[in-house]
Every structure is written in C-alpha cells, then in structure tokens.
Amino acid sequence: MRKICVITERRAEYGILRPVLSEIDNHPDLELCLIVTGAHLSKKFGYTIKDIEKDNFRIDYRIPLKNYDDTGASMANFVGEFTIEMVNALKDIKPSILFVGFDIGAHLAAAIAAAYMAIPIAHLHGGEISGSVDESIRHALTKLSHIHFATTDKNAERLIKMGEEPWRVFIVGAPSLDTIIHKKLLDKEEIEKKYGVNFDSPVIIILQHPVVTEINESIKQFKETIEASQEVYCQKIIIYPNADGGSQNIVREIEKIERTKDKNIKIFKSFPHKDFLSLLKHSSVLVGNSSSGIIEAPSFKLPVVNVGTRQERRQRAENVIDVGYNKQDIKEAIEKALYDEKFKNKVKSCGNPYGDGKASVKIAEVLTNIDLDERLISKKMTY
C-alpha cells in the first residue's frame, strides 16, 4: 500500500483538497497521512481544524504557527520553521509520495524537505499564472515536483513549456468541481435559515485577501471595495481573508464594520466548504479577489467582480469582470453584474474551463499506478 502524505494549511485549500483526501482515504491501495498546520490551528481564523475532524480524517501531525505577526517576514519565517518540522514528519511517516498543491508556504516548505529526502512530489494546480508572490511559489513547486496535476489544457501546456517532461503531466481538472457536481449542496432555504440571509433580494459576497507584494496597500484596497459596495443597496456577506501578510489590517477594518451593526451586512470568519459553495450557488455576485471567482463560480453561473492583481492573467470564464482598486470602477462593475441583462445572459451560458468533476478519481488513479522508480525521481529539463 502506498502512503500519500498531504498538507493542509488553510480553510479554502482544505475545501478544494477534501474530495482528493476522501478518494485517497477510501482507496484500497492508498493510505492517507494528513498534516494540519497554519491558520487551521488559529482561533483568529476560525480554528478550522474542527471541520477536518468533523469529516473524520485521521490527522497524523498538527504543527501550529509560531509567533505569527502578519508580515511578509513572518510568512518567510514560517516557511523555514515548517521545513524543519516537515523533515521530522517525513522521517516518521516515510511516505511513498508527498502531495502538495497551489502556491502556499507550507506546501513549498514540505516540497523542499521532500526533494532533499528523495521523496516523489505530486503537485496540483501547477502551470497557472496569477499575481503576487503566489505565482513564483507555484512555479517553484513545479520545478521541485515529479508529478503534475494540471487543471486545464492551457496550464498543462505551460508546464511543458517550463521544461517539464510531458509524461509527468496529467490533465485532471480542479477537485473543487467534484464537490459541486457530485455532492448535494444546501438549498436556498437551508442557507437562509442557517446564516440569516434572504435570497428574495440581491446578496453580494465580499471576499478580499491581501496581496503579499502589496501589503502596505491592503487596507486602502479593501476600503475601496467596501465603500463601493456600500453605494449599492443590497445585502452583503463579508468573509474574513486568509492568513497572508496584511490580513490583520483587513480584519480590523471588518471589525469596525461589524460594530456599526448594519442589518444588511453579515460577517463570518469562515464557512465549511460545502456551505460556502452553497452560498455561491444562491448569491447574486462575488466581489473581491478569491480564486473561487475564477474556478468555482462559473459552475454556478455566478457573476464575479474580480478586484486588483491577485488573480491577474489566470484562465477564466466569461462570468468575470476585472477591475482595479478604484471605488467607482468597482461600484459600476457590481451594478453591471446585478442589473445588466446582456451581461447576465452571457454569464448564464458560460462554461467552466476547470474540468468535469472527476479530478479526484483521476488523481488517485495516477498516485496508485505511476512507477516509483529512478526515472520518476531524476528530473530532466526538456531543452
């Protein structure tokens, strides 16, 4: 039986990984070894390890954040500290394959440790382009990894252009679509009752993360989005950002909004992934810079106002309106998403380039059958 070691650091990434974890956990030839770290273990970000425990996954290691102070330097320190912790964990677990994803610090640290220990690394969501330091980390993970799970044809093509051998690249789609297509989401009435919203009138979701390369501007950027949304009369759901450097500035601004006790604004630290997807399904528009607007929202025909540089150049469907950090532009984009019938009709017919909802099965099949030999571990540039 092959041991597959998986890292999860934050709520959104866990939601995306969950169908993969489930497929590995239930596979007769695979054993899941799960390491939980980062924001999952922070009360400040909702202590989301409880969601993992509720899903009944065995947690092999819990590695908490140490002295995290919401700066780029602190994020770098975490990567260094977590690399050391991962060496010890990998020595103990002795995995057949390390499975990493995306563009997240803990995954980079784990991959560095595994590369030096000659452990094969499989990477999900490689070959994608976006803004911020995320893209650099994502491409670094590509060069460290031995197996690539691409979400689209274009991303697979980019991996090969980066010098990766074609036989290492598998087009599987985005696992988050597995949940959308195969799991029963909450219906409108369940979401209304659970979270106190009313879908009889428009509902805007606001989810904006800090951009690490623009930390000093994060609060100004968030205020532009909030002030724009306040000029559009409708219900608003504001969700806390991720734990990247600059996030606490945004959190403090959200806390100020909460103290106004505006009846049209609901604020949440986090949602279980199934609930979040259900919210996307029934809401009117998503505003901010979450990758959910790019990857999951098209499946719900949900209009998205994508603000700023974080998702810049990422492959997208026709449901997305791209704007800069400007209050007037954001306001006009929200109004277009809510009231422009021509745009709304275009969104209703948009497809999703991120797969067919079978990513987890495809990933598990590769993890089970790929040869774990010298050829796999000895990477070669193709040019």
Keywords:
383 residues; Rossmann fold; 6-stranded parallel β-sheet; alpha/beta; 13 strands; 2 domains; 7-stranded parallel β-sheet; single chain
Explained architecture:
With 383 residues, this protein is of the alpha/beta class. 44% of the residues lie in helices and 16% in strands. The protein has 16 helices and 13 strands. The strands form 2 sheets. The protein has a 7-stranded parallel sheet, with helices on both faces. The two termini are 36 Å apart.
Which strand order does the major sheet show?
3-2-1-4-5-6-7
CATH architecture of the largest domain: 3-Layer(aba) Sandwich
* Assembly level: single chain
The helix content is 40-55%
User: In CATH, what is the homologous superfamily of the largest domain?
Assistant: Glycogen Phosphorylase B
**pLDDT < 50 stretches:** none
Topology overview:
Blueprint: E1 2-8, H1 11-25, E2 30-37, H2 49-54, E3 59-63, H3 72-93, E4 97-101, H4 105-116, E5 121-124, H5 132-144, E6 147-150, H6 153-161, E7 169-171, H7 176-182, H8 188-195, E8 203-207, H9 218-230, E9 235-239, H10 247-259, E10 265-268, H11 273-282, E11 285-288, H12 292-295, E12 304-307, E13 320-323, H13 327-339, H14 341-348, H15 359-369, H16 374-377
Parallel strand pairs: 1-2, 1-4, 2-3, 4-5, 5-6, 6-7, 8-9, 8-11, 9-10, 11-12, 12-13
